Amino acid sequence: MQTIKAAVCHTFGAPLMVEEIVLRAPEMGEVEITLDAVAICHSDISYAEGAWGGSLPAVYGHEAAGIVTAIGAGVRGLKEGDSVVVTLIRACGTCGSCAGGKPTLCETPYDGDHGPIKTATGGKLHQAMATGAFAEKVVVDQNQVVRIAPDIPKEAASLIACGVITGVGAVVNAAELRAGQDVVVIGAGGVGLNAIQGARIAGARRIVAVDMSAEKLETAIEFGATDGVLATQESPWKDAFKALGGRGADAVIVTVGAIPAYDQAPRYLAQGGKVIMVGMPHSGAGSTYEPVVLAALGQGMVGSKMGDVVIQRDIPWMVDLYGQGRLKLDELISGRWRLDQINEAIADTKSGAARRNVIVFER
Predict the structure, then answer these.
(1) Alpha-carbon span 231 to 211, nearest angstrom
(2) Residue 31: enclosing H or E segment and its boundaries?
(3) Long-range contact list for 229-238, CB < 8 A, 24+ apart?
(4) Do β-strands 83-86 and 63-71 pair in parallel, antiparallel, or remain unpaired?
(5) Coil, strand, or helix at residue 166?
(6) Burial of 29 (0-12, 13-18, 19+ CB in 10 A)
(7) Where are the alpha helices (DSSP H) in the chain?
(8) How far apart are the two ends of the chain, measured CA to CA in Å?
(9) Is the CATH number of domain 2-162+308-360 3.90.180.10?
(10) pTM exceeds cut of 0.90
(11) Closest CA to 163 of 363, 362, 358
């Protein structure tokens, strides 16, 4: 057992408390990662606010990168000193979903209440999202990590763990976008910018970004959008149609958890197009649409969890794109913060101005 610092949520909606916790050594199939960076995702914030319930006290955080510092029995393909990306995708590899190539939908449950962390007094401490990366170190399953080159900045690499794979994967894997097709991305935040990048990389003809902020639309253009539409207009889908030459989009990627965005998303579609649902509203929130329209026009709506990625396949590809200058990562980082500044970083993220804030650990 060792003592480390972590940002702990004791009460939903209250500030996180940076305190000492206890971390056990890695067991069968597990690795210990000393973190260099962890990004703040809106999902972490929603969990900490109680949007989806869960066990407390808890350590959130799931977009991380660092160095392997201990290895449990049975671990293959990793060694101490390896640089890695740490994800929340804990895939067993043997259930129906994993065997069918959908590890993001792994059916084997994980009990975070009985994970590798405890309070300083030995009490229960929930390892949220099988990661608990708002901490100096994590112990996770070997299948949650992907080795990367040591020269890749960890702040940039951490973004790949969730926001990048979710956005790029939603376009490439879930929408199965083909070169020459048209895309509308609703929401130009961190995930939205990566969806835009995914559409650009996939060879989209036109990419229309839709957002409430004119400033964010300018950023979307920098990341590859061909057009921007303000969502504050009465019928923004009409402007998207104009930008697309009088037709709808083959894919509409909803990257925000706002119900109005989901209500309006089908309006942007072309015949045969589909809405890819990425953003996560709070539990109990409902959206409305006309199913007869979708049926008559051959349209569809499909959820995409974590970009439907296979991390051992997709993360090396994305790292290579970054190395070639084809995938922007450094430009996604809005600010770098210390662990003891995490509540300030969360507040800045909630303001809507940040693309991604990153907690950087000095060691």
Answers:
(1) 5
(2) strand 30-39
(3) 231/186, 231/261, 236/210, 236/264, 237/264, 237/267, 237/268
(4) antiparallel
(5) helix
(6) middle
(7) 42-48, 96-99, 154-159, 165-169, 190-202, 214-222, 236-243, 259-264, 291-297, 311-324, 342-350
(8) 20
(9) yes
(10) yes
(11) 358
Residue 52 Rama label (left phi>0; alpha psi -120 to 50; beta): alpha
pLDDT digits (tens, 9 = 90+) for 233-292: 999 999 999 999 999 999 999 999 999 999 999 999 999 999 999 999 988 999 998 999
CA distance 314 to 321: 11
Per DSSP, what are the bridge partners of residue 269? 249
Residue 363 has pLDDT above 80, yes or no: no
Mean pLDDT, range 299-312, rounded to an integer: 96
Q: What is the reported pLDDT for 24?
A: 98
Which parts of 76-209 fold into alpha helices (H)? 96-99, 154-159, 165-169, 190-202
Pairing of strands 356-360, 63-71: unpaired
Taking the domains of the chain in order of start, what are their residue ranges?
Answer: 2-162+308-360, 176-303
Mean pLDDT of the chain: 96
CA–CA gap between residue 51 and residue 185 (Å, rounded): 24
For a pLDDT cut of 70, what percent of the chain falls above it? Answer: 100
Helix, strand and coil content of the chain, in percent to the nearest 5, comes to 35, 30, 40
CA distances from 86 to 67, 83, 210 (A): 10, 10, 31
Main-chain phi, psi angles of 295, to 5 degrees: -65, -45
User: Is the pLDDT reported for residue 362 higher than 90?
Assistant: no
- Please check whether the domain covering 176-303 is classified as CATH 3.40.50.720: yes
Is the distance from CB of 299 to CB of 273 less than 8 angstroms?
Answer: yes
